[in-house]
Amino acid sequence: TQVAEWRGSIDPHALGDEVAKVGYFYNTAIVCVEYNNMGISCIDRLTKYLNYPNRFKWPILDEAGKLHKRKEMWWTDPRTKQLMIGSFRHAVKTGLFVVRSEGLYEEMMGYQNYDGYYEAGPGGFADRIIAASLSWQCVTTDQDSDMMTLVFGSRFNDDGKPKVRDSAAGQAEKFVNRADRSSFTPPERGLPLEFL
C-alpha cells in the first residue's frame, strides 16, 4: 500500500534534505533515488553530507547468478526500466501495491506501451509512476532491508499510522502524504489496461 508521496519542484541537491526528512519520519525507511541526470546531486547530498543510513543497494549478479556486489541507488536504462515497470505492474495487478494517490492514478491512466517501451502519453507525465516503481524495487529487491515489513503492516501503530521516531516527527510533519488523509480510492475496474 502506498503510504507517502512528495511532489514538487526543487533543486536536486535540496531534494536530498527532503528525502532524508521523509525517510526519518518513516522510521529511517529505505530510500532510492534514480541515479540518472540530476539525481546524482540528490544522492551526493544524501550520502556525503547527510550520511543517510538506509539507502537502496541493488544486487549486481555475476553470470552464474551469484551476488557479485551491491550498487547504491537505481540507474534507469531501457532494460532496467522494463524490469521496474514490469514488477510494479504485477504488484498493482495482484493488489500488493495499492494506489492511494489520485495523481499517481491519473498518471497510470495515461501511461502507454509503445512497441514494448512504456512512456507517458501525449502531454502526460510519469514521475509518480517511476517513483512508485522505484519504491516497489526497494521492497522486492533489497533482501537486507526490513522494508518488507512495511508492505504487510507490522511497522504500523494500532491506529494504522506508521510508527514514527519522536525526534523526526516535528521536522517531517509537513511532508506526510496528503493521500493518507484523503478519501481517494481508485475504482476497482478503473485501472489502466497497461497495468492489468
Molecular structure report:
This protein has 196 residues and is mainly α. The protein has helices at residues 12-25, 39-49, 78-94, 102-110, 127-141, 148-152, 166-172, 178-181; strands spanning 57-61, 67-72, 111-114, 117-120. The strands form 2 sheets. A two-stranded antiparallel sheet has the order 1-2. Strands 3-4 form a two-stranded antiparallel ribbon. A hairpin with a 5-residue loop joins strand 1 and strand 2. The longest helix is centred in the middle third of the chain and has 17 residues, at 78-94.
Lay out the secondary structure:
Elements lengths: L11 H14 L13 H11 L7 E5 L5 E6 L5 H17 L7 H9 E4 L2 E4 L6 H15 L6 H5 L13 H7 L5 H4 L15
Antiparallel strand pairs: 1-2, 3-4
Helix pairs in contact: 1-2, 1-7, 3-5, 4-5
Can I get a quick summary?
This protein has eight helices and four strands; from the N terminus they run ααββααββαααα. It has helices at 12-25, 39-49, 78-94, 102-110, 127-141, 148-152, 166-172, 178-181, and strands spanning 57-61, 67-72, 111-114, 117-120. It is mainly alpha-helical.
* Backbone CA Rg: 17 Å
User: What percent of residues are in strands?
Assistant: 5-15%
Mean pLDDT: 75
Structural class: mainly alpha
pLDDT below 50 for ≥5 consecutive residues: which ranges? 145-157, 160-182
CA(first)-CA(last) distance: 17 Å
The shape, in one word, is globular
**How many alpha or pi helices?**
8
**Would you report the number of β strands?**
4
Helix-strand sequence: HHEEHHEEHHHH
Largest sheet: 2 strands, antiparallel
Strand order of the largest sheet: 1-2
Q: Percentage of helical residues?
A: 40-55%
